[in-house]
Amino acid sequence: MKKIRELIVFTALLVVALWKFDMVLGVLKTIWRIIFPFILGGAIAFLTNVPMSFLERTIFKKAKKENKIVKKLSRPISLLLTVVLVVGVISLVMFGVIPQLTRTMGTLMTSIADFIPHMQSWIREFFHNNQEIIKLTDQLQFNLDQAVRWAISLLGNGAGNMMNTTMSAVGSLISGLTTFFIAVSFACYILFQKEKLHVQVRKVFFAFLPKQKADAFLKVCSLTYRTFANFLTGQCLEAVILGCMFVITLSILRMPYALLIGILIAFTALIPVFGAFIGCAVGSFLIFMLSPKQAILFIIVFLVLQQIEGNLIYPHVVGESVGLPSIWVLAAVTVGGNIMGIVGMLVFIPLLSVFYTIFREFVYLHLKKQHIKQVTATKIEEYTEEEIAAIEGKEMNRTE
């Protein structure tokens, strides 16, 4: 009767939701606007907790046991160091890359203007019998002044459109700052009280759910956190190592834009599987404008470093942190990219890893219930009677 009542209530709610779909959608949007700052704060706390916990363990592990004052100050200091580290990385990108990028864009304009005549002469020599291609080639022109005027007009149109929506932009800015302030405050509260919150959450689950279900759900949450944290840590460290490798190698080979290309590849390498190749394409184009020979050399260097990184560095740095076979990594990147873009690529790998781990445990559990020890391509190995008795004894002791 209880299940029938629950089914009737669920059916009634579903009918009302479909009948008043616009109203339900409006209510859901309102609820989302209310809880979004807290969800954002939880995401900020999750991302910040990874480096903060690392610094807290590394710097204050021994001192926390010996001094109570250090124990109280260890977390605020670790959080402050994490913020300083993030701001430092952003400042390095802004003051180190943006000026060079500006100079690069100016050099690129000049390089394009110089490159087009050379390209036209190459095409004439290669397609000297095809007059139509030669005519199309002769029509290619690049006027630097015209390109500058086009860029200024584009910025002017953007500024004009921005001025037309100034009031709404100011309102959105104030709302965004308010949301960000609430999210940061909530994230700081989570980080400072995470042990206490963890105990409270456990109490709630064990109070309202059966013990076995609550324990299973909390284990899934713990597995999810470990998987995401290991993946983010490994991916960021791997991107930094790869970027440094390119900066050092390109500087030794005296190639142009060494710092810019290294930082670009480091950032794009955060995108699993395909990211570094995006940086390779942009870097090849930048170098090709100055020297096609060096561009070919850069591609060779990229392939060599990519093989070293993929076969030696990545397995040790990221390795089995997500516990997902390569074919499923590719599937997660493809599906996540199609659904949510770059964010989907980053989220779906650890998310699919969690589901893969849970499903694998589920399969092994059912195999154990069937008294199957191992399945190979040619045979099925079953547990002996002694092993079955030992397993049942362990399960009885665990239940008691």
UniProtKB/TrEMBL annotation:
<keyword id="KW-0472">Membrane</keyword>
<keyword id="KW-1003">Cell membrane</keyword>
<feature type="transmembrane region" description="Helical">
    <location>
        <begin position="76"/>
        <end position="98"/>
    </location>
</feature>
<dbReference type="Pfam" id="PF01594">
    <property type="entry name" value="AI-2E_transport"/>
</dbReference>
<feature type="transmembrane region" description="Helical">
    <location>
        <begin position="7"/>
        <end position="28"/>
    </location>
</feature>
<feature type="transmembrane region" description="Helical">
    <location>
        <begin position="259"/>
        <end position="288"/>
    </location>
</feature>
<protein>
    <submittedName>
        <fullName>AI-2E family transporter</fullName>
    </submittedName>
</protein>
<comment type="similarity">
    <text>Belongs to the autoinducer-2 exporter (AI-2E) (TC 2.A.86) family.</text>
</comment>
<feature type="transmembrane region" description="Helical">
    <location>
        <begin position="34"/>
        <end position="55"/>
    </location>
</feature>
<keyword id="KW-0813">Transport</keyword>
<keyword id="KW-0812">Transmembrane</keyword>
<feature type="transmembrane region" description="Helical">
    <location>
        <begin position="326"/>
        <end position="359"/>
    </location>
</feature>
<keyword id="KW-1133">Transmembrane helix</keyword>
<feature type="transmembrane region" description="Helical">
    <location>
        <begin position="295"/>
        <end position="314"/>
    </location>
</feature>
<dbReference type="InterPro" id="IPR002549">
    <property type="entry name" value="AI-2E-like"/>
</dbReference>
<feature type="transmembrane region" description="Helical">
    <location>
        <begin position="169"/>
        <end position="192"/>
    </location>
</feature>
<feature type="transmembrane region" description="Helical">
    <location>
        <begin position="228"/>
        <end position="253"/>
    </location>
</feature>
